[in-house]
């Protein structure tokens, strides 16, 4: 088993869902910086959540979850694009409360004035930003509340993470056509939620998505399209660094060169290093060293 996303449908029912499992991709991300236990677990849950949410979009582009707060966790973000590429990063100060955790509630309970943003950035078209209050104990509960209030598609989400693997399940009750109301088993949705909530954190993080679906819904007629793979990848590039230098302007670049030549830009997500010597940096402004 590796980094996977499995979509599922229940035959003749307006229900669809996804199960994700991340291991190597999460380990790669967590190995790039030194995170305390509780933040590793938060990042794991955020990554699984973005991989689940990305699957509900029908666009080319990316979706990110971003927590901003005052307190010892300053921000944390996780991102997934339509190719199944994920990355994540967090910034924090030392806090003894981060030494141990079982789920995202440990970090969420320390946040001051927190906000969770859901950003959807299509390759073409308008960006969307949703704001999710972080006033429930866990990330999954906050996201479900968001769906309740804004999307109005009944959605149930479970998430779990260890410091090495993470996973989650999302199930949605889709709008029905008029003529479907009578033929649908009214107990279906409450039954599915009840079954989904029997899933233990250890099962979410250790079992294959298909095994999870079998355990939960073996009495339903579950259909499984092909699995998709997920992987760690970074979107940083030389070109983005060039744009950033142009953005800060010639004077700021000259000032930077006085203290740092060549200019070094390090990607926090993947530790890639981009360097620009004085000639390269100034040539961006159509100038050369005299
Ligand atoms: Zn990078």
Automatic annotation (TrEMBL):
Keyword Chaperone: yes
Record's keyword annotation contains Amino-acid biosynthesis: no
Membrane-spanning residues: none
Keywords: Chaperone, Cytoplasm, Disulfide bond, Redox-active center, Zinc
One Pfam family hit: HSP33
PANTHER family per the UniProt record, alphabetical: 33 KDA CHAPERONIN
Protein name as annotated: Hsp33 family molecular chaperone HslO
Species the sequence originates in: Acinetobacter pollinis
